[in-house]
């Protein structure tokens, strides 16, 4: 039996902890055939980002045509795209191809605090990509930027999720919420209502690429044909174990265990 194909449209992380490298590792972990479209190249490691350079729109579109013409994905995700012009071009392509099951991971700031998305690109993402998404997976900071609402507690996260649904997202999964009793509680809002995804908060510095890896696991399960809610629950369990069993690599914010 042929494995399902999953696609990541994202930036490159040479240290392998985040970006398309993390996505491809995660796709493979769940038995999907991973394909990738590179949008930007970074120079980074566990200690920080030193340089970011975006690829041309023509080259990104050529990659998209190459993948869709020969290896059409069953599900796909976006990561760092980098500019309003590139977001608009990618969104137009995905609309034309009626791309299935898009997980929109709105990568705006690296784990080291390096800004990856200017303000006009945030507006383009809301207008162009959000309505195409089966689910958007922001953290609290990204949810605030996308919704225009302050997000500082579970109630405000819920308000931001509902706002993003009203703006066209089919579902919103806000990551990284602080719950009670030492829990980290993600919130999924979809057509069925609300679902909390709790896990014990872990004291660790191995958090490089957690957002990418979580969204990639979600994409992989959607590519495998699972519904959104079970996919979200499985992705949450995976990323928790991936953080808990992270290897001791690098001297800064280390990567998770992509084979967890």
Protein described:
The protein has helices at residues 19-29, 57-70, 84-97, 119-129, 140-147, 154-166, 210-223, 228-244; strands at residues 5-12, 33-45, 48-54, 75-78, 102-104, 133-136, 172-178, 183-190, 193-200. The longest helix has 17 residues, at 228-244. It is α/β, with parallel strands linked by helices and 260 residues long. The strands form two sheets. A six-stranded mixed β-sheet has the order 3-2-1-4-5-6. The protein has a three-stranded antiparallel β-sheet with strand order 7-8-9. Helix 7 packs antiparallel against helix 8. The mean pLDDT is 92.
Short account of what is shown:
This protein has 260 residues and is α/β, with parallel strands linked by helices.
Defining key terms:
alpha/beta, UDP-N-acetylmuramoyl-L-alanine:D-glutamate ligase, 3-stranded antiparallel β-sheet, 8 helices, 9 strands, globular
- Per the CATH scheme, the topology name is UDP-N-acetylmuramoyl-L-alanine:D-glutamate ligase
* Highest CATH level, the class: Alpha Beta
Q: Architecture, according to CATH?
A: 3-Layer(aba) Sandwich
Low-confidence stretches: none
- Helix share, percent: 25-40%
Main sheet attributes: strand count, strand direction, barrel closure: 6 strands, mixed
């Amino acid at each position: 039996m042929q494995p399902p194909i999953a696609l990541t449209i994202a930036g490159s992380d040479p240290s392998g902890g985040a970006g398309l490298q993390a996505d491809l590792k995660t796709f493979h972990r769940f038995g999907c055939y991973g394909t990738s479209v590179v949008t930007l190249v970074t120079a980074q490691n566990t200690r920080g980002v030193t340089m970011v350079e975006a690829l041309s729109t023509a080259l990104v579109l050529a990659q998209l045509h190459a993948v869709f013409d020969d290896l059409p994905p069953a599900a796909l995700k976006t990561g760092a795209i980098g500019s309003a012009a590139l977001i608009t071009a990618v969104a137009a392509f995905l609309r034309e191809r009626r791309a299935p099951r898009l997980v929109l991971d709105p990568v705006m700031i690296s784990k080291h605090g390096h800004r990856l998305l200017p303000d006009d690109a945030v507006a383009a993402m809301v207008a162009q990509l959000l309505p195409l998404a089966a689910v958007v997976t922001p953290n609290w900071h990204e949810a605030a930027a996308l919704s225009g609402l302050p997000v500082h507690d579970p109630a405000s996260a819920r308000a931001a999720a509902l706002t993003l649904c009203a703006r066209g997202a089919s579902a919103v999964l806000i990551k990284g919420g602080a719950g009670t009793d030492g829990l980290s509680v993600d919130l999924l809002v979809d057509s069925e209502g609300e679902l909390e995804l709790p896990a014990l908060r872990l004291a660790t510095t191995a958090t490089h690429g957690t957002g990418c890896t979580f969204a990639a696991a979600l994409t992989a399960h959607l590519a495998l044909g699972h519904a959104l809610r079970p996919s979200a629950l499985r992705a949450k369990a995976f990323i928790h174990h991936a953080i808990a069993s992270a290897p001791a690599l690098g001297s800064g914010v280390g990567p998770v265990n992509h084979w967890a």
